[in-house]
Amino acid sequence: MLNEHIPIYRNLIQIPTSALRIGMYVAQLDRPWLETPFTLEGLLIRNQNDIKKIKKYASTVYISVDESSTNIVHSSASLPYTKKRVDTKTNKGLPYEPSSNPIPIRKEIQEIGKEHADAKGMIKNLMSDSQNWHNNLPRAKEVVKSFAQSIIRNQNALYWLTRIKNKNEYTAEHCLNVGILAMLFAKHLGWEMKNIEEVGLAGMLHDVGKMSIPAEILDKPERLSDAEFDIIKNHVLEGYKILSRDKTLPETVLRTSRDHHERINGAGYPYGKKGDDISDEAKLIAIVDTYDAITSERVYSPAQPPTEALRIIYEESGELFDKFLAVKFIECIGIYPPGSAVQLDTGETAIVVEQNPKRKLLPKVFILPSSGKQHLCNGTLLDLSQQKHHGNRKINRALSEPQNPDDIEEIFNFLKADECQT
Ligand SMILES: [Fe+2]
User: Which residues neighbour 334 within 8 Å (Cβ) at sequence distance 6 or greater?
Assistant: First the structure.
């Protein structure tokens, strides 16, 4: 196995090298250690010179909280790690520990695919009937329970499904995706199952107030007037009002619908709440809502790749988004999320099929055939973490140009169908 002598560090945080500080232990770079002059695969930052050297060879690194000086980690304002926050909702105060043996992604996609398709229909119904929307609630609660189980079996399947987008169904898909991403993120944070399901339901229902906005404003491609923007902004209070009519919903779900456009610096709406006046759930939904919106094609803007969405979220962290949660979300999605295109050191283009939770830099990839997509059967599935020798294929870089959503869907369907397996 490649680099098998490297210790598997628990409790890794992915940060840009600009956030490096003395005392941090760099466990992994965004490129193989072999391509750098560092002789050891891991480095305790002892001085500014170490930081300079790391910056020369990497733009993003994983630091090990366990191996770093905890005083420095906890006191550094630029490193948004606050263990206490994690502790509030964990089972044992431990951060996320990935399952070492998830079921195969192909099997999990088959398992959860139909439920996902049904869920989209359910959300469409729910969002189109302001009188009887609550009739869909029992089903919505069932869906979050099924999704929670799927995430435990293999979280890559539902993430893939959030990447398959139909621009004509933006509202329903967005609500569903925000629910799924919120659950993936909450699991990554180590939240208890009850909280994971609750934040998933909050995500699915966060924009329920948009039912009251006329379509000509909601879908207007041109710039909105101030009056129209006020109508859009009112969806949060309208959502709270609508959801309050149902007495079975947890208060968290209601409050998240009202507060998901509040921002850490007070620049949000409806109340301009700041910092910890905003609940953890609303801060979390604010991030995943933004991530899904940026990576989706909307009437007024094209879809951007995940890396661009993560860059924007990171840039706005500490101002619009909670800094700790923004960094944890980047760690959750990873540098190479499923569905993203990468270039290997051989020059080949590959699509990331499945993340390896313990070796995020060595995902399972599908190497596209050089002859084009019409010959997908000539492609190769390869688990980069399972190669036998050093010097085998490695990821050189993520391809940052926007990907055609149809390409992603085609490759996803190909992988799902298992057409060319021998
Ligand atoms: Fe919203």
Answer: 14, 355, 360, 363
| Residues 197, 322: Cα–Cα separation, whole Å | 21
Query: DSSP of 373-414, one letter per residue?
Result: GGGGGG-EEEEGGG-SSTTS--EEEE--SPPPHHHHHHHHHH
Q: What is the CA(211)–ligand 1 centre distance, in A?
A: 11
Say if CB 362 and CB 368 are below 8 A apart: no
Ligand 1 centroid to 182 CA: how many Å?
Answer: 14
Going from N- to C-terminal start, the domains of the chain cover: 12-77, 105-333, 341-417
- Lowest model confidence (mean pLDDT) among 184-193, 276-285, 326-335, 388-397: 388-397
Phi-psi region of 267 (alpha: psi -120 to 50; beta: other; left: phi over 0): alpha
Tens-place pLDDT, residues 329-343? 998 898 888 888 888
In the reported structure, the alpha carbon of residue 236 is separated from the centroid of ligand 1 by a whole-number distance in angstroms of: 7
* Nearest by Cα to 281 from 211, 206, 210: 206
**What does the DSSP 8-state code read for residue 48?**
H
Contacts of 266 (CB under 8 A, 6+ apart): 272, 273, 274
- The predicted pLDDT at position 21 comes to 83
Q: Which residues surround ligand 1, an ion (CB under 5 A)?
A: 207
Task: State residue 82's pLDDT score.
Answer: 30
CATH superfamily label, 105-333: Hypothetical protein af1432 (1.10.3210.10)
Q: pLDDT confidence of 227, banded at 50, 70, 90?
A: very high
Whether residue 74 is predicted with pLDDT greater than 60 in this model: the reply is no
- Residue 194 Cα to ligand 1 midpoint, Å, equals 23
CA of 173 to the centre of ligand 1 (A): 13
**Cα of 1 from ligand 1 centre, angstroms:** 45
**233 Cα–ligand 1 center, Å:** 8
Token reading at 165 = 């987008």
Instruction: Tell how far the Cα of 81 is from the centroid of ligand 1, in angstroms.
Output: 27
Separation of CA 210 and ligand 1 centre (Å): 8
Compute, in angstroms, the gap from residue 260 CA to the centroid of ligand 1.
Answer: 6
